[in-house]
Design a protein that fits this description.
alpha/beta
Length: about 180
């Protein structure tokens, strides 16, 4: 099974993913941002279809490597792969999700949501200053993500505004168990 944990920057995806890894036997966290960081640092003379400096998810190779890595982790025997990633482009999310399903892997997608004010507060508590270089990129993106992730296309939603990360992790586990019991 692959658990995709989507949501805005600062909403708590990675924190929840780490808690899930501790609670779900034979699971692992796979963070595809690492692939993106590597690809963005490759010299410009190396052609990468879709390369922009706005979002590494635009790089076709990033999506391909994300899919291949998760499929490889599944093949070597991890029962559950937990992927925290901000997907705001529905086409990219669907491309990745479909690739997993086409390869016979069950996928659960949870989109963590929170108000823009809560996300800004969480980013500030992390030390991301709105006027820093990182902050000038992440704050507008977080606002956009808060808006778009509320849309039904990004469900299954979990509101995190007033919930502790451990409560969110429990909610995800409960939802997975409930679906398994229905089968």
């Amino acid at each position: 099974m692959i658990i995709l944990i989507n949501g805005s920057f600062g909403v708590g995806k990675t924190t929840v993913a780490r808690l899930l890894v501790k609670r779900i036997p034979n699971s692992m966290l796979f963070d595809p941002e690492i692939i993106g960081f590597v690809l963005r640092r490759l010299p410009k003379f190396i052609p990468l279809k879709g390369r922009t400096f706005e979002d590494f998810q635009d790089i076709v190779l990033w999506r391909q490597l994300t899919i291949l890595t998760a499929l490889s982790l599944d093949k070597i025997g991890f029962k559950t792969i937990i992927i925290p990633m901000t997907f705001s482009n529905l086409d990219y999310l669907n491309q990745i999700r479909s690739a997993f399903v086409d390869n016979g892997i069950a996928v659960r997608h949870f989109c963590l949501t929170a108000s823009v004010e809560v996300v800004r507060d969480r980013l500030m508590r992390r030390g991301v200053n709105a006027s820093s270089a990182a902050g000038k990129w992440v704050y507008p993106r977080a606002e956009y993500c808060c808006e778009i992730h509320a849309k039904p296309e990004f469900r299954e939603h979990i509101v995190t505004d007033e919930n502790l990360p451990s409560d969110v992790a429990d909610d995800i586990i409960d939802r997975i168990r409930a679906l398994a019991n229905e089968s």
